[in-house]
Design goal:
By secondary structure, the protein is α+β, with helices and mostly antiparallel strands. It has 44 helices and 45 strands.
Length: 1239
Amino acid sequence: MSAAELQRKHAALEGAPDPFPSLVDEPVKARPSSTTKPDPESVEAFPSLAPSVSTGGQRAPSTWNTAPRIKATASKQPHFSESFTIPVGDLSTAGKDGKPTSLGEVMKRVMNQYKVKLEASTNQKTRQTTFYLRSENKKDIEKAKKSLLAGLSPVVSLVLNAPVSTIPSIIGPKGANLNQIREHTGVKVDIPRRDSLHPNGQTAGTSPSASGTATPLPTGDDEDEPTIPITITGAQPLALEARAMIQDVIASMTSHTTHKVKDIPQHILPFVLLHRPRFLQAAEGGEITLQLNQAAGEISVWGERAAVGRVVESIKSAIEYYKGKVESYTFSLPKRQHRLLTGKGADEVMAKSKCAVIVQSFEEPGDEITVWGLASDLSNGASAAIEVANSAYIHEFPLPGSIAVSRQMLRYMIHIDYPKTLSENYPGASVYAPPQAIIDKANVLSVDIIGEKPKVDEVVREVSQLVGKLLGATKDVAIDWLVHRIINSHKNAKKIKAFHENQNVLVYFPPESAERSLVLLVYDPFSPNASPSPMEKAQKLEEVEKELLKMAKDAADVKSQNISVEKKWHEAVVGRNGTTLNAIIGEDKTLSVKLGADVGDSTTEDIIQVRGISADVDRAVKEIEKIVEDAKNDEIVGSYSTEFEIGQEFVARIVGAQGAGINKIRDQLGVKVDFVDEHDDKDKKKKSSAPRQVKVKITGRKENAEEAKKRIISQANRYADETTEVLKIAHDYHSSLIGQGGKYVVRLEEKYDVKITFPRGEHGDGKPRENLKPDEVQVKGPKKGVAGAKSELLEAYEFEKSNNIESKFTIPTRSVARVLGRGGATVKEIKDNTGAQIDIDKSTDDGNVTHVVLKGTKEAIAEAKTKILDISAQVHEETTDSVVIEHKFHRTIIGPGGQGLKDLIVRCGGPSDGRAQAGLVRFPRQGETSDEVHLRGEPKLVTKIKAELEKVVAGLRDRIVLGVEVPASQHRALIGRGGQHLNELQNRTGAQVQFPGSRSYNAVGEPANTDELTDVDPANLVKVSGTRAAAENCVEELKSQVKPPAPEGITGTIDVPLKYHHAVTQQGNFFRNLRSFHVTVEQSASPQGAAVPPRPATASEAVIARIDDPDEGPAEVEAQWQVVPNYQDVEEGDAVWTFKAPDQDALDRALELTREAIEHAKGMSHVGFLTLPDRSVFPRIVGAKGSTVARLRAESQADITVSREDNTIVIIGSESAIHAAKDAILKIAAPRSRGRRGD
């Protein structure tokens, strides 16, 4: 029975008309109704439209009528089936072109098109039709289902507004996701380009919905994101399915959201940050991420949408709370201390006081800081801020010279990032340069260095060294900033680089955005070739300045021109996103165009200023005037288009990777660029010698389109001139041609603007670069540049072949260490002296020999080989041995600076040269616990060293430390001058003696006879170390040299008047004389006054003495002479002097000398002050080693003191004695007689 017949039965039973016409004309009988749901697997409920398969050769009995049926044919039973139900729809517009159709027609068409069996059943009560499909191929079922749905459903257009950020995911890599949706549903999905949209997100010229309502996305609290309308056109269920698939992609992308809590006040932000744990807790386990933008005062919350909303509310609640709670307190601190109150410093203040500290920007005037917090915390906050501000040492390093020179130095430091480098090199110190705003305005510039004082001092020293080198090494050259780009272009790169190579001068151009004209020249202070001569620095700077000015003069003739343009037309000149202005300025950007207020004319904003190269200014002015005129006339200038052709082989390079190149032109100039290849596939397959051309069409504003055309043609011409050459160069010479760090090949690339590729580097897949063979080098670039680079490479290759000869030979492996030297010093010296390249290959199969490879000129190889073989010949057959020496003896054997070990090797007949001794004896390194000492060298020498070491160790093992009591007062005598007596004692006995206070006293250990020394004063304990016999012998000798204590001396006293104290003691000479015969003096009191009365304040009553030259007549020099009484205004009273002497004779002698000194002091009644005009005669007065002044003292019986600080000589004695001394001095000081001509 057909599906139509089955449908009629259902309709008859339910009393509803049949919506589907029959496919056959045979009537059928009514069937009892059933309320059960039809089983789609039941053949009775869903009989096939195709003949059924007979089983067992017999036909199954039918429950339906016996109407004639189509003859059954044998076929395979389908393996796949699927059923689905859809609402009964209106098929009046479901056909092609909107014409009516029927269910039967649709089903017949689907079965004819796909290899499926299709059955249908409609329930009029529920108004739904169920379809059952069977096929051997699952794909056929899917295709049939789509075709059936498409045939039974009306065509609709749905619009889905998708956020811009989700479009890449909807499209997928190379359109994979979008193609999958299209193939699965069979609908048309249209996603417009972003640049074709209006700001509201709708396509230009369309309404928000083409044939239905646009589907908006759920909106949250996060920031509005622009959307793009996606149009889905197709059968209604398939269109709905496609929309659901796209919504799933959008949901997966928007299930997470980002919300920014903006405009958080700077004084509130620190308090909010303290509640981060509370914010995370508000997420209730949801995934979120918090990010802080301190400068902007905002917190970004990213994560699950619901969690983000809760966290944002928590943050906003905290902000509102603190806005109503915190108060402020403002006070002043020096500006340089403000740096300590930012970052970690501000965090420290918050941790100590629960207050936030806010400092002004360093560019702002004033030195105020503000502390924010609860009223009860503000005092603690201010104290904490002051404490942190004073927590580090701050050094303000002023830059020397004029303000212009200081600016030059500072600009150089900023260019090379010197403050950051110093901060990294000296942890614990931070270096800050002032900001640009202060550099431009300040009259004095300085660098602030903050941190620990020792570190700051180190930084100050380094900065001082650099500043010293920079004095006279900087210069500003005024060159219009518009031509900086031309001078500093790729064309002049080699010349500017040569300034550093030839004159050691670095050239620094200011950033183009700064529009500054001063170019900084610096004589490189870090170059090893830098000269300290100021003259040479100035000369080199002047040479570079002349060259730069010449380059500037050759570059352009700069001028400025103002155009009067009403402000309302400025937008037309700028264009959308600055595209029109970009076209006017051009790709070289040698023009400056300022509009309105930026011009700086306070009288009007209806102005445009153009500045640059004269020809470019004239061109730009004309273009601006034309644009303004076009705008005034409301011309439609965006419809202009131009067409031209370029070679097809250049298109990919002009378009760039992922369209980067062409998109740059589109974005800068606001034009549309299309490449049209009009050749069909047949033309492409035909071989033709002529290169194929591709048409380029550019649409947009005329000026912009012409500029884009100019740029594209320029690129194509540049590519057309490009060529590639492959040179045959043996692989062995590649490294020398490349140079260290690629410096040679980079020089060629910069010089000729080419790309040179060597095959020595390989990619991860093992393929060499550019598919080059090992002996090939590729040169790619402009024809002229390739020719020049090729010529130089081949010349260098020929030079290397003739001068880079290779020689190989072997040396005994035992001599390799000697050839290399310590740290490679020996082989490096050979390299430097001969110029040969030396490679020592230790990885050989034969362990007895080592291969040496030499490269260089013939002469260099011969010389280097001779030197290496000579060193190798000195190393005879070697042997190795070892000896066990306790670790505690190692330092003793090695000795200070290794001298003990060196002497041991020499004693055994070994070499005295330190380099030759290296490796003979190797003690365990520091940290190793081994006691084994390794020996390596000639067998005889190794045997001797081993025996000597064992002998030394045996002595050390027998070593003992003994103590002996020696009074501390006798230590100096036993040691002797320069340790002479001590050295003699140690050499005689073979023991070491350590006196208290020596550096090794504590290191030798405790004496073995400590029990015998319990009552000995530590200051008297001398330690003796060595073998037992030597130590005991030395102890006995020390005991024999100890003198018995002196017997108790006898004493005597005498009263000495305090006023005579200074005259008697003679500045301590008197006591030193007494000690010469072992008499000491103790004084009960000492005078507090000066030894000599003060010099009179004026010279009005002074006697003037003349120094007359008998040969010249009148006095030539005058001396001032002043006399005052001695002992006036002095202390009265006596001091008791107690004398201690070894015997009565010494005591009597001391008492007698003291009495004589007192009597002599009584006679010293006057003090004379003799002041000479200058000190030039003082050497004659003093004499050699004081001989003259000593003679004068003896002759005059006066005490004479020659001052070292002024021109006054003090004379003390009786009145007659001081006058005699004065006359004698004046006689010596008188000018000497001079011989006359003719005498």
